[in-house]
């Protein structure tokens, strides 16, 4: 049988030397780095969960505020309709609105615009 190159020939494969101090030090660093990364990922997932919980609570609070504001809008709209109805009823009966407006001199006759507001002599020029 011919000798093939993929047989287990001891000359073609070199056995790895026993682990050195450098290799074990590198392995320890890898283990420490993986542990540190695992802890960081765990903290990150916890922060992400907390943020989602906070956003959920904020969302619920905003939904409640929105509902309260919608109720207030509805109530104010009903109040506005009521007052518009009252005003409409009043306009039909109001004698002031049905009579012609008074002349401007009648409106301003009771007001004197030239009176000094401060009567103390200290404030007069």
From TrEMBL:
<dbReference type="InterPro" id="IPR000837">
    <property type="entry name" value="AP-1"/>
</dbReference>
<keyword id="KW-0963">Cytoplasm</keyword>
<dbReference type="Pfam" id="PF00170">
    <property type="entry name" value="bZIP_1"/>
</dbReference>
<dbReference type="InterPro" id="IPR004827">
    <property type="entry name" value="bZIP"/>
</dbReference>
<protein>
    <recommendedName>
        <fullName>Basic leucine zipper transcriptional factor ATF-like</fullName>
    </recommendedName>
</protein>
<feature type="domain" description="BZIP">
    <location>
        <begin position="27"/>
        <end position="90"/>
    </location>
</feature>
<dbReference type="GO" id="GO:0005634">
    <property type="term" value="C:nucleus"/>
</dbReference>
<dbReference type="GO" id="GO:0030154">
    <property type="term" value="P:cell differentiation"/>
</dbReference>
<feature type="compositionally biased region" description="Low complexity">
    <location>
        <begin position="1"/>
        <end position="15"/>
    </location>
</feature>
<feature type="compositionally biased region" description="Basic and acidic residues">
    <location>
        <begin position="53"/>
        <end position="62"/>
    </location>
</feature>
<keyword id="KW-0221">Differentiation</keyword>
<keyword id="KW-0238">DNA-binding</keyword>
<dbReference type="GO" id="GO:0000981">
    <property type="term" value="F:DNA-binding transcription factor activity, RNA polymerase II-specific"/>
</dbReference>
<dbReference type="GO" id="GO:0005737">
    <property type="term" value="C:cytoplasm"/>
</dbReference>
<keyword id="KW-0804">Transcription</keyword>
<keyword id="KW-0805">Transcription regulation</keyword>
<comment type="similarity">
    <text>Belongs to the bZIP family.</text>
</comment>
<keyword id="KW-0678">Repressor</keyword>
<dbReference type="InterPro" id="IPR046347">
    <property type="entry name" value="bZIP_sf"/>
</dbReference>
<keyword id="KW-0010">Activator</keyword>
<keyword id="KW-0539">Nucleus</keyword>
<dbReference type="GO" id="GO:0000978">
    <property type="term" value="F:RNA polymerase II cis-regulatory region sequence-specific DNA binding"/>
</dbReference>
<feature type="region of interest" description="Disordered">
    <location>
        <begin position="1"/>
        <end position="62"/>
    </location>
</feature>
């Amino acid at each position: 049988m011919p000798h093939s190159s993929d047989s287990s020939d001891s000359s073609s494969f070199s056995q790895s030397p026993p682990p050195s101090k450098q290799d074990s030090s590198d392995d320890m660093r890898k283990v420490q780095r993986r542990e540190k990364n695992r802890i960081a990922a765990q903290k990150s997932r916890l922060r992400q969960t907390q943020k989602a919980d906070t956003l959920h609570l904020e969302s619920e609070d905003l939904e409640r505020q929105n509902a309260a504001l919608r109720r207030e809008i509805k109530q104010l709209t009903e109040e506005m309709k009521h007052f518009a109805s009252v005003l409409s009823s009043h306009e039909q009966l109001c004698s002031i609105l049905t009579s012609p407006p008074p002349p401007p001199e009648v409106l301003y006759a009771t007001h004197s615009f030239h009176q000094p507001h401060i009567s103390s002599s200290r404030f007069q020029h």
